[in-house]
Amino acid sequence: xxxxxxxxxxxxxxxxxxxxxxxxxxxxxxxxxxxxxxxxxxxxxxxxxxxxxxxxxxxxxxxxxxxxxxxxxxxxxxxxxxxxxxxxxxxxxxxxxxxxxxxxxxxxxxxxxxxxxxxxxxxxxxxxxxxxxxxxxxxxxxxxxxxxxxxxxxxxxxxxxxxxxxxxxxxxxxxxxxxxxxxxxxxxxxxxxxxxxxxxxxxxxxxxxxxxxxxxxxxxxxxxxxxxxxxxxxxxxxxxxxxxxxxxx
Length: 249
Ligand code: PEP
Prior knowledge:
- About 45% of the residues lie in helices and about 15% in strands.
- The protein is an alpha/beta fold.
- The chain has an eight-stranded parallel sheet.
- Strand 1 (about 5-10), helix 1 (about 15-30) and strand 2 form a beta-alpha-beta unit.
- Helix 7 crosses helix 8 (about 180-195).
- The chain is globular, with a radius of gyration of 17 Å.
- The protein starts with a strand and ends with a helix.
- It binds phosphoenolpyruvate (PEP).
- Phosphoenolpyruvate binds next to strand 8.
């Protein structure tokens, strides 16, 4: 059985006091669920969030990290710094990191290696741009992203990976891939992994969908057999919306 996951990427939102308020609301309202629930506040609030959620079932993840052990990388955060405050999950390769900060799959392969080597779970994001979907190249784009960033990994490393398929055209736009489009791509991703590794690796990795998931569309998207949950942006910033999405899984 694959782990079902609902993860909230808070991006560059919420001050410390706002973080505390949202975490209190989430902790109070979180339902009993078989799913793993994750929140990813901004770096500066991670330690406080981890502390706040100590006795909660909600996990905390970072939104990014550097691949290097330590050193002269001004403004960056290392895996050991995250581990030291009790975090062992990190989102890597979000489309905003790719488009606004120039991260490519070669760099992301190094970040994934570091996360895996440090015993962390990497939530690896990928997905095609609008023009790539319109031109019918979305399958080959996604296949290349997986190949370049992940297919060098040993089979056992896949136990520390969660995939998040996020078509860029659906992120923060209000435009959602239809449940059938999500299922079609998730099935393709699983087939691609099965060909590169084997069906056990493909069937055991959780593949989340991300892109304008809301309380109103979550249940239908999550009902698809190859969709194992969601990576949620905007709707994770409101407790009631995020909790409604958790309830939809
Ligand atoms: C995201 O940023 O990962 C995301 C899916 O955002 P939104 O839900 O706002 O589209």
